[in-house]
Each structure stands twice: as C-alpha cells, then as structure tokens.
Amino acid sequence: MCDNHESGATGHFVPAYIHKHIAESAAAPDKARQAALRTLSVDQDFRGQRVTASETAAAPCAADEPGVLAAQVPISKEAGDEARESARATLKTDAKIREQRAALIGPAATDEPHDHLAAPFQLKRLIYDAKGSGNLRGTLARAEGAGRNTDRQVNNVYDAIGITAMFFYTVFGRNSVDDKGGNIVATVHFDSKPDDQLGYNNAFFFGTEFAFGDGDGIIFDYFTDALDVVAHELTHAVTKYTSGFTYKFQTGGLNESISDVFAALVEQWHFNQTAAEADWLNGQSLFPVAIRGPALRDMANPGTAYDDSILGRDPQISHFSQYNDDLSVHVTSGIPNRAFYLAAIGFGGYAYDKAGKIWYATLTDSRIEAIAKTATFKQWADVTVDQANKLFGTGATVIVRNAWIAVGVLV
Ligand SMILES: [Zn+2]
C-alpha cells in the first residue's frame, strides 16, 4: 500500500501505523483495538476528502480509498464478535460521513483572512464544540476574548492556540498562521461515530481549520491536553501558507518535520527551556497517566520514542542511508528532525534564537516555495545553510552544514 502519504493529507498527529499496531495487538484491550480501527476509518475518510478538495495533494492509490484500509486491517483472532461488528459498522457509515465532509469543504475554504496591512496582530480564536459528533464548527463554545468556561478541552485548545500564535508573532513576526491576521478555528470533542463511546484518537488539520478528538481514555488521552499537538497542527497551516509542501516522499517528510520542529520550539519558548534543557519529545502528554512514559516521536534520537506490545516499536529513521520513497512521511521526518536538533545543540542557548530563525527563514524562502511539490531534503538543507550565512555569518553555516552531514543529507 502507498503508506508514504497515509493519513497525511490532513496532517493527522498520530500516524496510521500506530493505530494499525494497536488494532492488531493481542496486548491491547478489546475496546482500545476497536477505537484504533474506528480512528483509522475516520482518518482515511477525511484524508480522502482533502485529496478530493486539493489540487496539490497526491492522488490516492486504491488501498487508500476511505474505508478500504480499515477493511484490510485484520482484527486479531482474540477480538470478540463485538469488535468485528464494530469494524463492519464503521465501514457502513463511511458513505454517510463522506457526504457530511463534502458539505464542509465549502465553508472551511471560504474563511477569508483579513487584509494583511489593515490588520495588526491580534488573536482571533473561535473554538467550537462538536459535542461528540463529526461536525466541524458544531456549537461555538468560546470566541476570542470570552472568559474561561467549564469545558477543560475548550479552554486548553484556546490557550494552546494562543501560545502558538504568540510564539510565531514574537519570534518571527508572523501574524496568525496565514500571516494576514486570519481567524484560527478549532473544533473539540470531535468524534464522527459517538454511539459506541470509543473515543476518537487523533487531531488533524482540514482545509483551514483544526479538529481534536477526546481519545479512547485507554491508550490516548484528550488531544487538546498537549501543547505540542496543538502547535504541530497549527504549523501544518503555516506550512500550507508558506512553502506549500505536499505530503509525500521527501517533501512530505519535510512537511511533517517542520510541524515537529516548530511544535518543539513552541514548548521550549513557553517553558523557557534552552536546547540543552529541552526533552525534544513530541506527543508525550497524549498518553493517560496510567501508561504515561513514552512519546510519539523523539527528535534527538528518532526511532527510540516507544517500544511496547501495544504501540509497537517507533519506526522513525535518523539517517538518509535508511531513506526510501515507500516509507511514511512520519517515519522519514526523523532525518530532518535530528538535523534540526543537532543544529540547535550546536548553537547552544535557545533553539528558536538561531536554529529556529534559520528554519523559519527557509520555510518562507521563495526558492523553497518554488519547489513545493518536489523539494528534497538536500534542497531544503542547502537553503538552511544559505540562510544561516545570511542571518548569522559563516560560523553558523558550519554548524548547520555539520548537522546535515551527520544525518547523511549533505556530504
Ligand atoms: Zn503532522
């Protein structure tokens, strides 16, 4: 199957291969396996919609058709009739969900941002509550300036969006994700199949807005509780409005890495951590207290974030010699992730001061935008070296070049 762009056209935080492992794991409780299957189905459906809506997205291969992937995931023999019935029900409801998604593409895409020059920076957050449905923009739960309410998930995503937007503005002068002061719209308690009370295990970027599930409470906790998850998804929007990177092959690996890099920087900025003090982990807060410990990605040492019978083993790679086009973008992103980590450690101090500014200057470089569909790790690396020189002089180019040499992208 073409896993190189699985579940990716909508920038899901948790890659499909993790859900697949949970669904097949004899160690996972029945309910967790069902939730994993259901999440795979929902994610595939949304990705299909995005592919339909976007000219730049890769055409789906047959195995990626909504619902088909879930049908191909074998439920382990230990799974009860209930799990098999749940999988069948999931497939049956896909057609209905596709209709709903098609209706949503219009309003999401027509959310025109304000004029850049007429709009000095200000936060404009709109947080909606899907109330367990699959409706983006269900009920408006908290608009910009409104006080905290009694819904922790609404408040958390409101705050995390605020921190992320302030980071991009304070450090890089970026005015909202589109740099035009546009609204940031998010939906919480998203779950397109609430009747079975399994919980939706993901967060994603869809068109111009964001959705966050509540998790199954067994393997995954609320997706709004993790600042880096929210920052990761918002950065997918920044990428859309800058490099415009597509979501496959090396360009897709860069797209994923950019979201991990800036998510890590948002956390480090907010918690006042230097590069040496930071943990360089993504998604650590996604897991419930009972199984807390692993993270989803380790930028310092890709491939070591987790290794257990339920989640499987972290397949991320960290050197270009391991790369091939069949790998998931969530796997290949380990290479540029580690390069960024090495550059940040090489500079010392706060990672966003130098390495972060070099990466942001690269992301907004017209040379990068010109190769939005075909950018390779080497092309990106060459521009980071050039931007290092422009921003911080020749000493900086040595640090950045050495980081890319260490991961096998430059020689
Ligand atoms: Zn992502």
UniProtKB/TrEMBL annotation:
UniProt key word Membrane: no
Transmembrane segments: none
UniProt domain Peptidase M4 C-terminal: residue ranges: 243-409
CDD domains noted in UniProt: M4_TLP
GO molecular function: metal ion binding; metalloendopeptidase activity; translation initiation factor activity
Biological processes, Gene Ontology terms: proteolysis
Pfam family, one: Peptidase_M4_C
Entry keywords, A to Z: Hydrolase, Initiation factor, Metal-binding, Metalloprotease, Protease, Protein biosynthesis, Zinc
Domain Peptidase M4: from-to ranges: 160-240
Family the entry assigns: Belongs to the peptidase M4 family.
The protein's name in its UniProt record: Translation initiation factor 3 subunit b
Native source organism of the sequence: Pseudogymnoascus verrucosus
Gene label: PRT1_2
